[in-house]
Write a structure and sequence with these properties.
Elements: H1 7-20, H2 40-43, E1 77-78, E2 81-82, H3 106-109, H4 124-127, E3 132-136, H5 149-152, H6 160-165, H7 169-180, H8 183-192, E4 196-202, H9 217-230, E5 234-241, H10 265-280, E6 289-293, H11 307-324, E7 331-335, H12 342-351, H13 353-358, E8 367-372, H14 379-382, H15 386-394, E9 414-419, H16 435-455, E10 458-461, H17 475-483
Helix pairs in contact: 10-11, 15-16, 16-17
The chain binds 2-acetamido-2-deoxy-beta-D-glucopyranose (8 copies).
Length: about 500
């Protein structure tokens, strides 16, 4: 496809961009109407490349003024490198909480049980399905007004923060939590061949101190884990809203300023992640929770977060979560901040080095990168034909987004935590699915899934439901109108991508 830069050009642009400090304004995803100002090419260019390599990593520098370590943090970043994580000796043979349940899902049966915790990651590759085929449960525990406009009706709220600040919304919120996603959704997802969900949740579910946020979402996450387990579905717990807002977007909970890297917010983020890891990284959840995502779409730029600070924080948060979670096969994910895989290769190589160097069995690192690959956000994508959209998806494995040459599942597992079948060609707002629309959606969706299954650990559609919209944003609508009785892995256009 056209428009992708060679690596050399990419590097040159990256250096130029870092020099002049020009950053694209692209760090919002899934704008409801797709009006973008930056091009897709900008996405993977305007970032600085890290200079660290696998051998000299970690050598990122971080200014104390940007980030103060808690004196009690046992394996934090230091100027000269990372202190070694302590040896964890988890208690073995703990019974699973629901061990006597007869409804152990089929996904659990193929993997060694319980995990050999002394050889923590040896089971990672055999434990999980070859491909996670997932969907996000968006606008459930973190509201987004464009997705669930009915919830916002009658308020002036623009995000979770202002919604929760509005008088009388607490009951409405509980009503939404208890009705928007139910056990029936998990049964349906399972029947479609979905084997994973990514569940966005905000930090305030665990500590809302000093904020207007309403707590209580965690009880619904816990319910969802039970439903997921009953239906053979893995769960990625995604900390979608971080203290101070990591991107200033509505979907972080608080639209406006980005102050994630100010005050104590980075440390507070780690405290919250440890709370999550202590609870959901326990062995009693090891058959259902496959990962914890540290941060979603941190905005990188001179007006927002520094890439170097974000990378150093990623390492610290990874160690903190690994040390807290009993389950050592848990993926610990970090979003790339739209800086591209290249910016994270050396971070992953450093954190996963023990696994990649000693692995003779194709074992995987547990620090993983989350990429969001939309073709409906940027002006440049608007003018593509269906064939060009498909070609662009098919080229992911050989171009920047999922570039395989620098990474492997051992050094840096990749996940596509968000993508969509919605492009202007598959955009029906009237709910009328003409044969062309059905066909186009199926082709584009299959091409994307083929690319992701070729070059990543798995994919997660954004999103299960899209309030009031019966178009291709919603997996529910796609299953009903495009797939009928076909499961999601059924290909109508096998080999649509040249790589097979
Ligand atoms: C790798 O393993 C060694 C020996 O177990 C340990 O000392 C070291 O801290 C580990 N490195 C990382 C990056 O976890
Ligand atoms: C860890 O697991 C790998 C792969 O199963 C195996 O080859 C290796 O011997 C194990 N190491 C230990 C110390 O048990
Ligand atoms: C599950 O699918 C059935 C059949 O399409 C549908 O009638 C039902 O409403 C769905 N359940 C939920 C909770 O969406
Ligand atoms: C909650 O967050 C506040 C800062 O906003 C912090 O002072 C407090 O210690 C946190 N509480 C817990 C239980 O971690
Ligand atoms: C354990 O089982 C109970 C009763 O079936 C269920 O309500 C709960 O959600 C389950 N917990 C988990 C974590 O699966
Ligand atoms: C998609 O949008 C572009 C620009 O708005 C337009 O030129 C193109 O014809 C549209 N494609 C389709 C199939 O509607
Ligand atoms: C990525 O791969 C390209 C080409 O294979 C190589 O030139 C480059 O140095 C690699 N980058 C990193 C960060 O390893
Ligand atoms: C989908 O259609 C709506 C309504 O016409 C429009 O506002 C939006 O920009 C379209 N989305 C895309 C990705 O073309």
């Amino acid at each position: 496809m056209s428009g992708m830069h060679s690596f050399a050009a990419w590097t040159a642009l990256a250096l130029l961009a870092s020099t002049i400090d020009a950053r694209p304004q692209v760090h919002r995803h899934r704008r409801p109407h797709g009006q973008g100002t930056a091009s897709a090419d900008d996405l993977y260019t305007a970032v600085a490349t890290p200079t660290a390599t696998a051998t000299n990593f970690p050598s990122l520098s971080i200014e104390p003024s940007q980030y103060s370590l808690s004196s009690t943090a046992p394996y934090g970043f230091t100027a000269s490198g990372f202190a070694a994580a302590p040896t964890i000796t988890p208690s073995r043979g703990q019974p699973y909480a629901n061990a006597s349940s007869t409804a152990i899902p089929s996904h659990a049966l193929s993997s060694p049980y319980p995990l050999d915790e002394t050889n923590s990651t040896s089971a990672v590759s055999s434990r999980y399905p070859a491909n996670f085929r997932g969907v996000n449960l968006g606008s459930w525990l973190v509201l987004e007004s464009w997705m669930t406009p009915d919830v916002f009706q009658g308020t002036d709220a623009v995000d979770q923060w202002t919604f929760d600040s509005t008088d009388g919304t607490e009951a409405k919120l509980h009503q939404h939590w208890s009705t928007y996603i139910t056990e029936g959704d998990f049964q349906n997802m399972s029947s479609w061949g979905i084997n994973a969900v990514r569940i966005p949740i905000g930090y305030w579910a665990y500590n809302n101190s000093g904020t207007p946020y309403i707590t209580g979402a965690d009880a619904y996450l816990e319910k969802a884990l039970g439903w997921a387990r009953q239906n053979g579905i893995w769960v990625m717990i995604d900390c979608h809203g971080s203290p101070g807002s990591q991107n200033g977007a509505e979907h972080s909970g608080h639209a406006g300023a980005v102050s994630w890297q100010s005050d104590d917010n980075l440390q507070l983020s780690i405290d919250i992640l440890q709370t999550i890891a202590k609870k959901y990284g326990a062995m009693q959840y090891a058959d259902v929770v496959m990962g914890i995502e540290l941060v979603n779409e941190p905005k990188i730029g001179s007006d927002a977060n520094s890439l170097a600070t974000t990378q150093a924080w990623a390492a610290q948060a990874y160690h903190a979560v690994r040390a807290t979670a009993e389950n050592k096969a848990l993926y610990v994910l970090h979003h790339d901040g739209f800086t591209g895989v290249q910016s994270w290769v050396s971070v992953g190589a450093g954190l996963n080095s023990n696994i990649s160097s000693s692995s003779s069995s194709g074992d995987q690192g547990t620090f993983a990168l989350d990429l969001h690959l939309y073709q409906n956000q940027d002006a440049v994508d608007k003018s593509l034909t269906l064939d060009q959209h498909i070609a662009k998806a098919c080229a992911y494995p050989t171009t920047d987004p999922l570039l395989p040459s620098n990474t492997s599942t051992a050094t840096l597992p990749l996940f596509v935590g968000e993508f969509s079948a919605q492009i202007n060609i598959t955009n029906t707002t009237d709910g009328i699915w003409t044969p062309d629309l059905v066909d186009g959606t199926r082709k584009f969706f299959e091409a994307q899934m083929d690319a992701f299954e070729h070059s990543s650990r798995g994919w997660f559609v954004w999103s299960l439901k899209q309030g009031g919209d019966t178009g291709a944003w919603s997996l529910e609508a796609i299953m009903e109108n495009v797939y009928g009785s076909d499961v999601i892995s059924k290909r109508k256009y096998p080999g649509i991508c040249p790589f097979g």
